[in-house]
TrEMBL record:
GO terms for molecular function: catalytic activity. PANTHER family: ALCOHOL O-ACETYLTRANSFERASE 1-RELATED. It holds the Pfam family Condensation. This is Condensation domain. Residues 37-156 form the Condensation domain.
Amino acid sequence: MSVSNKSNTVIRALGSIETRMALFHGNLNGSTQGTQTIDFEADIDASTFYEAVNALYKKYVPLRCTIKREENELYFYRDADLNRIDVNYIEVNTIQEKDKIVRLALDDKIEASISLWKISLVKLKDQASYTLIFSAHHAIIDANGMHHIAQSFFDFIASKITGIHYFDDTEVDLPLAVDALLREQTFAPKTEHTIARDFDTACPLESRSTHWQQLKLDTVFMGKLNTQLAKDNIKFHSIVSAAMCIAMQKTQFIQTPFPFGTAVSLRFLQDSQPSYFNPLGCYMSIASNLIEGSELDVTQLAIKYDRALMHKIMTTCLTKSPIDINQVDAGTKQIATLHSFAQGVGITNMGDINIRSPHPSVLLTDYTMLANRVAGNFSIVAHCYAFNNVQTVSLVYPHPILAGEHVKEVVNEMRLLLEDYCAQANTNNSLHNTPTVPA
């Protein structure tokens, strides 16, 4: 499986967003590390999987990189040895065994000095059912990049099975840092003093794990929801955010005011700078809005949130953030000593997951995207995405510092709020297909 890598050289220094991600990951046990799992059916064997991994390693320069610190700077090096990267083909007897492997992958920290990714293929014994588990360091591979890599993986698999050329082996270079596209800071950001939610149970960082609970919305429910959203001119992301904030107030999960952070992808800048971007790269920012008062009307809060979010994107998110690596290093380490969720709650919306099989010989059946949340800076982060006509909202949280029963209360209240919102469009019709909450 070895691939020659003669250029063991420094490529470039990390940008400001990348540096923050790298220090957060390094100091907080892999927090923000993303893991996507994709279930599929195909007729392949271990050798085909290893060939696919080799092909990905050759195609994507970031998969051949590491991150190392030299004095007061972090650098990308092109020196990752594929033989040292965590690559596994595993055969299991039960779905429970597979789920355990997924959980371990989610929280098992990628060592950036060795590689920036890991990959496993889990096969159910005596079946043609597989689960691809791909984890990546968020400093260089965000959700968009993970989707691009997954698409390449399935293109390669389909090419091997059919003999038809689907896989594009054109090399994808290390992307540029987004810093050069941001504006110089011309204002002093307002400091928002908020009430933090205390941990439910004290637990050291190394003993925490990432847990999640899901709200799944089928096509019938989404049809009703989208009808009402169109009438109100509200985005799906905004109504989910409003429902989440109100659910937290109704269940007394957190007191107002509290910060509500929204992950913002700066990829929209590529509309004006298309040559600057490539499929991989960390272009993420956080827009934090303060949820004040006791606004319990989901429609009105969604409208307010949407306007406030746009303002934060056009100011805070597009503004350069001066970075002192020692200060950020110390600040991220300090998070591990906290006993409260200082940054409140958050949400990220990935939209429609556009990973498709190029040929019927490879059938994609399910998708999950999660991020390591053991740091405990956020209590809950909602991951929203749609795949195979099912909309999923995963509420991801650190266990045991946050108790699962509290998260379940929030999920159930969100479901009721979304049902009530849909009922505005169908006041005389009951909802026969409602969101489900797994036990």
